[in-house]
Design brief:
The complex is a heterodimer of chains A (320) and B (205). By secondary structure, chain A is an alpha+beta fold. Helices cover 17% and strands 21% of the residues of chain A. Chain A has one domain: Sulfite Oxidase, Chain A, domain 2 (Alpha-Beta Complex). Chain B has 205 residues and is mainly alpha-helical. Chain B has one domain. Helices cover 80% and strands 0% of the residues of chain B. The chains are: A alpha+beta (320), B mainly alpha (205). Chains A and B meet through helix 3 and helix 4 of A and helix 2, helix 3 and helix 4 of B.
């Protein structure tokens, strides 16, 4: 499927490929006398993917989606929210070392012809992996561009033959307080749950994600299996999924249960609808220059052309 | 016990230097290359750390009087103005970072924040109070204002309450950290309330 060029990524933001390809050469030149060790993390990060991460084979790169200038590997894996590992944005990277993403099974239940417990490898086997470079917008008004690896969620869901009563899809994160220190305090009502309408779940942009930067997902980014819904605030993109349920009714979601006035079920990125406590009109692109202003937030995070039709007739202010 | 001379020559410069350390840490992180120590979001790191140090120094300032009375020593008094001014300085840096780096002087956004966002209104009110205290902190102003100076500088209490409130309101979910500071402040204010009640019960001399 041709997804089309996402709006809002200016050509000038994209590192020319010739320069991009020269990174190793430039770094090697700079690395005289071991100077590379003195360089800040971020400068080397695009190259420095630690060897412990397994490279994913056979990734297709669809040029229509590879348009952004991605954040570095260090930024993507060192600054994010994953409350199961702590509240600070460096906590997931620091506290996820004990987490064991394999072996992994996912329960499929609810309004579907095929249900049961499935092994991770069996879930993935029929699906060719693709790289999708997506904008990622956190509800806290910061954003990144991330080269995810995965396959359309819809292709996976169809294998379970959802029935006509399947109006929503609910997701659940693993509950392992012994491996996830954040789950030992009752910050949120564990396990974390999220949900999509069936139309959102079947949309070709909705990515069942297994990797980032060509390697399998690091623990802190939701290993081994997470959702990426690029037109919604990041908290909708649930991590470390162990259950997928087809439901007739709108399923509960963790953040809207925790603060119903602040987080809704839809959580579409929308510069017109502020968070009750802060503005959503602009966002800080992580990795941007020190004095660069915040950039304007785009409706549906820049994917309006692809997804706005899903919400025709829906009051997006009320259904925030 | 330190003599007044020791306090002035040794301890005050030492505390002065200590109070500058958080700023030095931020400068090292900011002028080194991005991400050296300030992480992936340096603007947010500066915002958080300057705010936190403003609050910590404000609580230290409010701890001076209880410490002086409980210890029966006069020397803690020597540090009160300096600590208060440092609290104000970090609060001012916090606000400057918000204006310059976070909002990049986008006045439309800034005015919206200052009129619409409760936690920002609360924080700005605290800064306004602290500015008045900083401006009148000199010996000259103290003399000129006489008894009213004491009254004016009790604004440090509502300012500290506003700062805790501001912290509490901007946290997304877990309020443990602002709660710790709020409890410390409550302890300091409760001590003052108790002292006030005890004193007012004393028969007139």
């Amino acid at each position: 499927m041709l997804i089309g060029r996402p709006a809002g990524i200016r050509p000038s933001e994209i590192t020319p490929e010739t320069v991009f390809r020269q990174r190793r050469t430039l770094l090697r030149a700079a690395g005289l006398a071991g100077a590379a060790t003195l360089l800040p993390r971020a400068a080397t990060a695009a190259d420095a993917i630690p060897a412990r991460y397994r490279r994913l084979p056979g990734i297709r790169r669809d040029p229509s989606t590879t348009l952004g200038a991605p954040n570095t590997f260090a930024e993507v894996t060192g600054y994010n929210n994953f409350y199961e590992f702590g509240l600070d944005k460096t906590d997931p990277a620091e506290n996820s070392g004990q987490f064991r993403p394999q072996p992994w099974r996912v329960a499929i239940d609810g309004e579907a012809g095929v249900t049961g417990s499935f092994d991770y490898a069996d879930l993935l086997r029929p699906h060719p992996l693709e790289e999708r470079i997506y904008r990622f917008r956190c509800v806290e008004a910061w954003s990144m561009v991330v080269p995810w690896v995965g396959f359309p969620l819809g292709a996976l869901l169809k294998r379970f033959r959802p029935t006509s009563r399947a109006k929503y899809v609910a997701f659940e994160t693993v509950y392992r307080p012994e491996e996830m220190p954040g789950q030992r305090s009752r910050t949120l009502d564990w396990p974390y749950v999220e949900g999509l309408t069936i139309a959102e779940a079947m949309h070709p942009l909705t990515l069942m994600t297994v990797g980032v930067y060509g390697v399998e997902l690091p623990n802190q980014n939701g290993a081994p299996l997470r959702l990426i819904v690029p037109w919604k605030y990041g908290f909708k993109s649930i991590k470390s999924i162990v259950r997928i349920s087809f439901t007739e009714r709108q399923p509960p979601t963790t953040w809207s249960a925790a603060a119903p006035g602040e987080y809704g079920f839809y959580a579409n990125v929308n510069p017109q609808v502020d968070h009750p406590r802060w503005s959503q009109a602009t966002e800080r692109r992580i990795g941007s220059a020190f004095f660069s202003p915040k950039q304007p937030t785009l409706p549906f995070n820049g994917y309006a052309a692809q997804v706005a039709a899903l919400y025709r007739g829906l009051d997006l202010v009320r259904n925030f | 016990m330190p003599t007044l001379r020791q306090v002035r020559r040794v301890w005050k410069p030492a505390v002065f230097a200590l109070a500058l350390l958080p700023l030095a840490g931020l400068m090292a992180g900011a002028t080194g290359v991005r991400s050296l120590t300030l992480g992936a979001n340096p603007v947010e790191a500066i915002q958080d750390r300057t705010g936190l140090w403003a609050l910590r120094l404000l609580l230290l300032t409010l701890a001076v009087t209880p410490l002086r009375e409980l210890s029966g020593q006069a020397w803690p008094q020597q540090f009160r103005r300096m600590l208060g001014l440092f609290a104000f300085a970090y609060a001012a840096l916090h606000f400057a970072n918000y204006l310059l780096l976070d909002r990049a002087l986008d006045w439309h956004e800034i005015i919206t924040d200052l009129t619409k966002r409760p936690y920002i209104i609360v924080g700005a009110s605290a800064l306004l109070l602290l500015s008045a205290l900083a401006a009148t902190s000199t010996a000259g102003w103290r003399r000129r204002l006489g008894r009213r100076w004491q009254l004016l500088h009790r604004a440090a209490y509502p300012a500290a309450i506003l700062v805790c409130w501001h912290f509490w309101w901007q946290v997304k979910k877990d309020v443990t950290e602002p709660l710790v500071y709020a409890l410390l402040l409550a302890t300091l204010l409760a001590w003052r309330l108790r002292r006030h009640l005890v004193r007012s019960r004393l028969p007139p001399a």
